[in-house]
Amino acid sequence: MFENKGRTEIEQLGEFGLIEHLTKNFELKNNSSLKGIGDDAAVVNFEGKKALFSTDLLLEGIHFDLAYTPLKHLGYKAVQVNLSDIYAMNGTATQITVSIGLSSKFPLEAVEELYQGISVACEKYGIDLVGGDTSASKQGLVISVTSIGYADEKDICYRNGANEGDLLCVSGDLGGAYIGLQLLEREKGIFLENPNIQPDLEGKDYIVERQLKPESRKDIVEALKVMKVKPTSMIDISDGLASEILHICKQSNKGCNIYEEKIPIDPMTYDTARDFGIDPTVCALNGGEDYELLFTIKQADFEKIKNNPDISIIGHITEPASGCNLISKSEKVHPIKAQGWNSLKHSTE
Ligand code: ADP
Ligand code: MG
C-alpha cells in the first residue's frame, strides 16, 4: 500500500514535526475559537450559550476498510459523522479535535491525504480544528474526532421530548450507505479473487458516495430554524431507522406507527438492493450510516414543513402501550425491532 507515491517515513519528521506539518494550513474561522492548536488545551468562548460535545472512535478493520476507502474520504467522513451528532442536538458545530494512531505502514503522504479530507470538511462546514493527539499504533489506523458546538438552551433537542400525536420526520433518503457498502464489499471480493478485474461501480456514484462521503445535515437544522420549527425530539441516523426510532420512543416513553410506503428510498438504492436480493425497506430500517436526521414535530408545524422536498413525514407518535410498529405496504402491522448491530455491522475482519 502507498508504494507508488513518494514515501516519506513519519519518523523523519518526529511527532512535533508531523503535527506542525499536518495542521499548519488550518486557520481559525470562528470567533468562539480563542485558542486552537499549540497550547495544552484549546480555549472556546460560547458567551452564555450551552456547549455541546460529542466523540466518535473509528478503527481500521472495524469501522473502515482501506481496501476501498480513499484516505481523503475517510478524513472527510470521520468529521461528518461527528458533526452529525451536534446537528442532531439542533446545535451549531464550531470546533473539532482529531486524534490519530498510526502504524508504521502509513507514510507521511497517507496522513496528508487524511488531513486533506478533514480540511475540506472543516472548510465546507465552517469548523475550526483546535487540537488533537498523535500516537503510534501497533496495528492499523485509529481516528477519533471530538466535535464541539453550541446552542441556546431553549433550542436544544433531546431524544426524550416526543409527545403523542407528534409527526415523525426524516431528512433525505435512507438505505443508500448500506447498499453502497454491499457493492464495495462485492467488488473487493471479486478483486481479491482476480486482481486483473477492475471494480465495476459504473453508474453507482450516488450510493458509493453515500457510503464513502456522507454529508451531515447542517442544512436541515438551518432550514428548521428558518421555518421556525423546533423539533420536539431529534436523533441522527447512524445505526438505521429502526434503532433510532426505538431510542426516541424509549427515551420519550411513547410508541409510534411508521408507514413503509412513506420511508424515503432513492431509486438507485431501491434497484441495487433488489439486485442484491435485499429488501430495500430493510436497508433503510437496519442499514445505518446514512447520517440523516430523524425528528418529531408538533402537528401544528405540519404546514411549515410540508413543502420541503428534503423532509419526509413517515409516521406519528402514539401512546406507549401500542408499541412501535411498522405498517407495511400491504397494511400488515410489524413490531419494530432493532437489528443487533452485530448482524449488520460491517466488520472487515
Ligand atoms: P500534549 O503533550 O499536551 O498532549 P501534543 O504535543 O500532543 O501536546 O500536542 C501539541 C498541540 O498539537 C496541542 O495543541 C494538540 O491539541 C495539537 N495536536 C496534537 N496532535 C494533533 C492532531 N493529530 N491533529 C490536530 N492537532 C493535534
Ligand atoms: Mg498529546
Automatic annotation (TrEMBL):
Binding positions (Mg(2+) 1): 55-56, 133
Binding residue positions for Mg(2+) 4: 40, 54, 85
Residues that coordinate or bind substrate: 63, 289, 341
Protein name in UniProt: Thiamine-monophosphate kinase
Residues holding Mg(2+) 5: 239
EC nos: 2.7.4.16
A molecular-function term among this protein's GO annotations: magnesium ion binding
Domain PurM-like N-terminal: 38-150
UniProt keywords, alphabetically: ATP-binding, Kinase, Magnesium, Metal-binding, Nucleotide-binding, Thiamine biosynthesis, Transferase
Keyword Cell wall biogenesis/degradation among UniProt keywords: no
Function: Catalyzes the ATP-dependent phosphorylation of thiamine-monophosphate (TMP) to form thiamine-pyrophosphate (TPP), the active form of vitamin B1.
Record-stated family: Belongs to the thiamine-monophosphate kinase family.
List of residues binding Mg(2+) 2: 56, 85
